[in-house]
Amino acid sequence: METNQESQSSLERRIDMSVPMADIDKEVEARLKRMARTVKMPGFRPGKVPMKIVEQTHGAQARSEAIGAAVEKAFVEQVREQNLRVAGYPRIEPKKSESDDVTVLEFSAVFEVYPDVVPGDLSAQSIERPQLVVGDAEVDKTLEVLRKQRTTFAAAEKAAEDGDRVVIDFTGRKDGEVFEGGQAQDFPFVLGAGSMLKDFEEAVRGLKAGEGKTFDMTFPADYHAAHLAGQTVQFEVALKRVEAPQLPEIDADFARAMGVADGDVAKLREEVKSNLEREVKRRIQAKVKEQVMEALLAAHPIEVPKALVDQEAQQLADNARRDLEARGLKAKDIPVNVGWFTEQAVRRVKLGLIMAELVKARELHAKPEQIRALVEDMAQSYEDPSELVRWYYAQPERLAQAEAVVIEDNVVAWAVAAAKTSDKAISFDELMGNAA
Predict the structure, then answer these.
(1) 72 lies in which domain range?
(2) Domain PPIase FKBP-type, which positions (predicted)?
(3) Residues 221 and 319 both lie in one domain
(4) ∠ CA 331-336-341 to the nearest 5 degrees?
(5) Which stretches in the chain have pLDDT values below 70?
(6) DSSP letter string, 258-308
(7) Phi, psi angles (nearest 5°) of residue 229
(8) Structural domains in the chain (count)
(9) pTM
(10) Is 435 helix (H, G, I), strand (E, B) or coil?
(11) 24/159 same-domain check
(12) What is the pLDDT of residue 436?
């Protein structure tokens, strides 16, 4: 066997190889002999089919398999000898012979290799660690959110305002004709909640029960219903009922409704604080992790194999398609293009290669006690924490997920220590995504 390696790009390789046809012929003969022991044909006992007939029937299959095996063997040997880390699968290209007297099978294997990743210097990278201590003010804000989630409504004799639930009848006409979806009775919605168009809400705001209004309204140009987008219509609205919001008091009943069996409000506040501290910790970790990933990319400018990017993009597209199907959409109605995910796939592949090298070079592997601590921490938000711990440890696949999180946390911790890190106070609303 002869070989010749050429580099097509920084990651692409081409190896030219040749295999003697005599070796392939021997392999074909050996395969046919093995087939002849078990092949069945009408008129012959098993194993007694003449070799000539076996060759006529199965010769093409045996030759195809023999060539495939020879090509694979030659490629694997060369990869091993040259210590190449192949990314993806090789593309095999047969080479045409200039002579009719073919004594060797010539072919090329074109493939990509993994890039060399050298751990970079993060000392020039800046990372900000958000700082927030959960106190009474944060607990109060969270309890207020919980109250609003349990809002009830009671009939009120007043003009409708934001926060009120109104019940209306309405009819919409375009060019004097009622349009599709333009009519409803006893239709409820909360003013200011954004469930209706702003101009529609503005027309209803200020009306009292028993009052009505006729008004013109123009739908936005990008309105989801194409037959109404950009169109001006006329609405007739009759307000039948105004209901004012009623928020529950933070008392024993409220505490019991939130899962505190004895109704102790102090216990409720402690539970809310404990849950908030876990959530704040998680969000701060996520913000730091995001900065670390950017720092790693900046400190490790590497090229990535197209084969790995294509695989990752396909997986992301498949995940998106399954997510849409889970939401009730049919597969034929889901326009998911793999190309949409290429940029994200490049980033994920780069980070995967960089982090794998860092874990090996800096010995950032997950320790059993770290995995146990993570699982127990996640279990704290469950009614029976021990049940979740047992669930994770029941299957290696589940525990592997926790191990991957620990490894990622180890990389983040190492990067934070290696980079220029500073602490920065952050508001509760900003951290929780409630800032205006």
Answers:
(1) 2-113
(2) 163-243
(3) no
(4) 145
(5) 1-9, 97-101, 331, 434-436
(6) TT-TT--HHHHHHHHHHHHHHHHHHHHHHHHHHHHHHHHHHH------HHH
(7) -55, 125
(8) 3
(9) 0.72
(10) coil
(11) no
(12) 43
